[in-house]
Each structure stands twice: as structure tokens, then as C-alpha cells.
Amino acid sequence: MNPAIPYTIEGHVAVITMNNPPANTWTRDSLDALADLIKQFNANKDIYSLVITGEGEKFFSAGADLKLFATGDKQVAADMSTAFGRAFEVLSQFRGLSIAAINGYAMGGGLEVALACDLRIAESQALMALPEAAVGLLPCAGGTQNLAWLVGEGWAKRMILCGERVDAQKALDIGLVEAVTEPGQALAEAMQWAQKSERQSPTSIAACKRLIQTARREPMFAGMGYERDEFIDLFDTNDQTEGVQAFLEKRKPKWTNS
């Protein structure tokens, strides 16, 4: 286990905690470890969802340590951008539900890891920004793409081109997060959401997630075709049989993620 991203498994929920004091920044090692960890979770049928949060009361994550780029070494830039991109793309492709419990500052790559998740919950004191352009850089881990998809081009440009920070309430208003909690409560709320998702078939969730994300890159008519294909493919799963039988027998289904 990488000490910068320790994790626990609670029931069917994997909980990752970014833990690199003082600001829970990302390193090449921790990014590579995150990608490997998500792959492990994907291979574990007992894990249905994951939650990611930050250690401490102040930072969710401040992204990359800018000292890495102080020399202007392009190879370092290439290595880090590749590591960020790979890690967060693997996270976005996690087969189950992923939730970011934003417990403080989420800046740069710290916000981008939240953007790679399916849902985001922010504590009321949280601040979010993509400030890279202020230091001659740009968000390179999905920030320009995911933020615009979530909040629209206008707010994406305000945050990236104008360097605007948004607090938790504004983030909720513009659709950057799905809920705001009191300080210290984001993780508990995220766990409740993850547990609610366990009522759904994990194989159905994986299929639905693939379809929803397809809408980002394919026209709607193509997605409708994929939708029908995925529906038929579910009849090859044990969970489909169990779900229908449980409903008819008026009992809770026992999912096997198979």
C-alpha cells in the first residue's frame, strides 16, 4: 500500500485517502499507485463503489507540487502530465460508482481528481479552482475537458481563464458538485450514497456508467444503439436473473457482480 494513498474497504466500498502533507499533493509514485489501485478494485467483484477524500481538515488536495516544474525541464513535465492523465483516466473508467468527498481546498490536480469521479460532495468550507494559467501552465489531467462538460463553457472559462475560485455553494449552484455538507461530514455523506447504490445491480451500474460516459464522445443516435446492446447483454449476467426473481418474490436481491 502506498502511504500517500492508503485505503480501506468497508463492506462493498473502497475508501481512498490522499495523505501527502501538508497539502495532499500528488507525486509520480502516488499517481502510478492510484492507477494500479483502481485496476485492483476493478478486478475485485466484492467492491462496488469507491470514495476518495483528503487527510486532515484543510486540504482535499492541492494537486502537483510546483517545485517539480521549477527547472523548466520538459521531460519532467511530460512524465508528470502522462502520469496525471493515466491515473485520472483509469479512475474515470472505474466500473462502479466513484464519489469525491471534498473536505477542503481542491486546487489544480486536486480538483481534477474530483472531476474524474462520478459524483462530488463538498464541505461548506471547501474552495475549488484550476489556477494553472496563473503560473504559466494549464490543467492537463482532464480539467479543461471535464470541467466544461460539467459546468458549461462559460463557467469553465471563468475558472480557468479568469482564475476564479468557487466556494462550495457556488460549486453547487453551477453543477460542479452534487451536494454540500457541514464541515467534517462529506465522507459520511459519500458513504451513504455509496451504500444506496448497493441496492442497484453492480453489473447494471457498470453498463449504465459506460453509456452515460459515451454521451461525451458519441452522438445520441449512436448511444441509443449501444443502450439496446447493453440491455440485451445484461441477460448474460447472474445479477439480471437474480434481480427479476427477487422482485417477483418480493425480497431483496443478493448481487454477485457477475
Structure description:
The chain is α/β, with parallel strands linked by helices and 258 residues long. It has two domains: 7-197, 2-enoyl-CoA Hydratase, Chain A, domain 1 (Alpha-Beta Complex); 202-248, Lyase 2-enoyl-coa Hydratase, Chain  A, domain 2 (Orthogonal Bundle). 45% of the residues lie in helices and 16% in strands. It has helices at 28-43, 74-92, 109-115, 143-160, 168-174, 186-197, 202-214, 220-233, 238-248, and strands at residues 7-10, 13-18, 49-54, 59-61, 97-102, 105-107, 119-123, 127-129, 166-167, 179-181. Strands 1-2-3-5-7-10 form a six-stranded mixed sheet, with helices on both faces. Strands 4-6-8-9 form a four-stranded mixed sheet. It is globular.
CATH topology of the largest domain: 2-enoyl-CoA Hydratase, Chain A, domain 1
Taking pLDDT < 50 over at least 5 consecutive residues as the criterion, the unreliable ranges are none
How many strand elements? 10
Portion in strands: 15-25%
Strand order of the largest sheet: 1-2-3-5-7-10
- What distance lies between the first and last C-alpha atoms, to the nearest angstrom? 27 Å
Helix/strand order:
EEHEEHEEHEEHEHEHHHH
Mean pLDDT, rounded to whole units?
Answer: 94
CATH-defined superfamily of the largest domain? 2-enoyl-CoA Hydratase, Chain A, domain 1
Please describe the structure with a list of short key phrases separated by commas or semicolons.
2 domains; 2-enoyl-CoA Hydratase, Chain A, domain 1; Lyase 2-enoyl-coa Hydratase, Chain  A, domain 2; alpha/beta; 45% helix; 9 helices; 258 residues; six-stranded mixed beta sheet; 10 strands
